[in-house]
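Tip: read the tokens left to right.
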């Protein structure tokens, strides 16, 4: 494998740009999705109610995280990470092309293809990043940091382009731009994949796919195809709100059963059980955080469109442009936050893991308190300045930096060595659950009753602040259960 002059493998930049364009595609479409679904049919939208549109949005974003589990399994058993990235990119492009076609049937098929493609691409490209640094250590950490910047650059740029095209010209142009981004990323991947060497080229499982694995994959794909065909033909009617609620219960039940099985069916010692209990507590806190944070693409996106003063000079900026604020703040603040933790660590004052989660939840509540205040002006019949949304996104991003990277790190430290892979999967299940709940919460905002908006946001404020305070009260016992893990 060839190396770049700065000490990182050249393959890192293959993966950097592939992931940057994939995130361009994903976040570009995400910025349009709810606005497109709720727009009137005569304007090119789908004319859905807020409740239905946000439920679909929640199901879609949750499915993206759920699809990462079978996506990793397919790479491990069948085709390896490199080919999974390639096939995943092709599926994403096909899905985006389906969204360009102005038919409801192709819309749902397009979302499904994007979910399946992202499930193949997203976990496996991260796996390859790890494999091009076989020695591990600080160089690998630095490589992941560069890779993470690519994610946020793509996420920051895409809404600026897709929203300008989608909101100002035609929604389909915005979806097409998102698809073109993935085309560029895939071409770049194919032309420079030789820099990856053998990293991710072969299936991770030594025996490859067995007959049972092939049967499982065939059954899964057949089930998806049959359900989709029945739904699109109208033989079965699907209520997105009921599906979202039912899926929420299923995820909660699966997580509960998994943690109970660890305690009662696995041979864990006392220390391991206490550390798993800590992961369980953080799982709940994480799901609650993402259920608020992921309002960005739903209720906050609609707030930007309907109630925010967006005129600059004679130009009205697209509502989707606000979706770029989070990634821009991450790029700006991530080095600052990382430096802060290091500086505090030198003085032996680095906040503990539960304290960082508590801070994340408190900041989440603080951001929605800003929105509750802004909603008071909206109820009085006024559109508010963009500074309200900008402040909310800034506060939420600081909270994200307290929760997201810290949470991933905590699972690798707290999980029993033989269960790290499983526990990481469960951790992403919390994100999926949070996305589902976020869609359901957003559906409770009634555009015809703006006087209720402030109280809706205050409910999120009270819940978030209450969870944050509860985490503060749990700091001492949680630190004890961690048995020295920091």
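Filled-in amino acids:
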């Amino acid at each position: 494998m060839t190396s770049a002059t700065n000490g990182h493998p050249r393959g890192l930049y293959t993966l950097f740009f592939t992931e940057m364009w994939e995130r361009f595609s994903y976040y570009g479409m995400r910025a349009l999705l709810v606005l497109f679904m709720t727009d009137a049919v005569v304007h090119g939208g789908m004319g859905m109610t807020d409740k239905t549109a946000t439920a679909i949005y929640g199901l879609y974003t949750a499915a993206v995280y759920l699809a990462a589990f079978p996506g990793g399994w397919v790479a491990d058993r069948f085709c390896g990470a490199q080919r999974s990235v390639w096939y995943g990119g092709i599926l994403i492009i096909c899905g985006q092309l389906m969204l360009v076609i102005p038919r409801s049937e192709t819309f749902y098929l397009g979302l499904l293809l994007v979910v399946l493609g992202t499930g193949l691409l997203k976990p496996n490209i991260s796996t390859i990043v790890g494999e091009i640094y076989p020695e591990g250590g600080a160089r690998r950490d630095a490589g992941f940091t560069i890779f993470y910047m690519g994610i946020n650059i793509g996420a920051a740029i895409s809404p600026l382009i897709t929203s300008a095209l989608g909101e100002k010209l035609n929604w389909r142009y915005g979806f097409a731009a998102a698809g073109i981004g993935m085309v560029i990323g895939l071409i770049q991947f194919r032309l420079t994949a030789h820099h990856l060497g053998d990293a991710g080229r072969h299936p991770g499982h030594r025996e490859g796919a067995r007959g049972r694995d092939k049967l499982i994959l065939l059954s899964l794909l057949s089930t998806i195809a049959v359900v989709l065909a029945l739904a699109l033909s109208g033989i079965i009617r699907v209520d997105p709100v009921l599906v979202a609620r039912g899926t929420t219960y299923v995820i909660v039940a699966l997580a509960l059963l998994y943690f109970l099985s660890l305690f009662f069916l696995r041979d864990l010692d006392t220390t391991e059980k206490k550390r798993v209990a800590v992961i369980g507590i953080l799982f709940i806190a994480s799901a609650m955080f993402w259920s608020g944070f992921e309002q960005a693409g739903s209720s906050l996106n609609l707030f930007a469109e309907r109630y925010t003063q967006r005129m600059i000079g004679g130009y009205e900026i697209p509502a989707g442009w606000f979706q770029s604020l989070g990634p821009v703040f991450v790029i700006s603040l991530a080095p600052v936050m990382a430096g802060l933790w290091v500086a505090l660590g030198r003085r032996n004052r680095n906040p503990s893991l539960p304290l960082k989660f508590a801070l994340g939840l408190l900041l989440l509540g603080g951001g929605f308190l800003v929105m509750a205040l802004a909603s008071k002006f909206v109820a009085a019949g006024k559109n508010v300045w963009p500074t309200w949304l900008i402040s909310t996104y800034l506060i939420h991003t600081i909270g994200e930096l307290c929760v997201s990277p810290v949470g991933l790190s905590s699972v690798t430290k707290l999980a029993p060595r033989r269960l790290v892979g499983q526990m990481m999967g469960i951790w992403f299940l919390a994100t999926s659950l949070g996305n589902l709940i976020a869609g359901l919460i957003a559906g409770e905002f009634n555009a015809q009753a703006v006087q209720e908006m402030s109280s809706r946001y205050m409910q999120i404020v009270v819940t978030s602040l209450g969870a944050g305070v509860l985490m503060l009260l749990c700091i001492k016992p949680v630190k004890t259960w961690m048995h020295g893990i920091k």
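The chain is about 75% helix and 0% strand. The CA atoms of residues 113 and 378 lie 38 Å apart.
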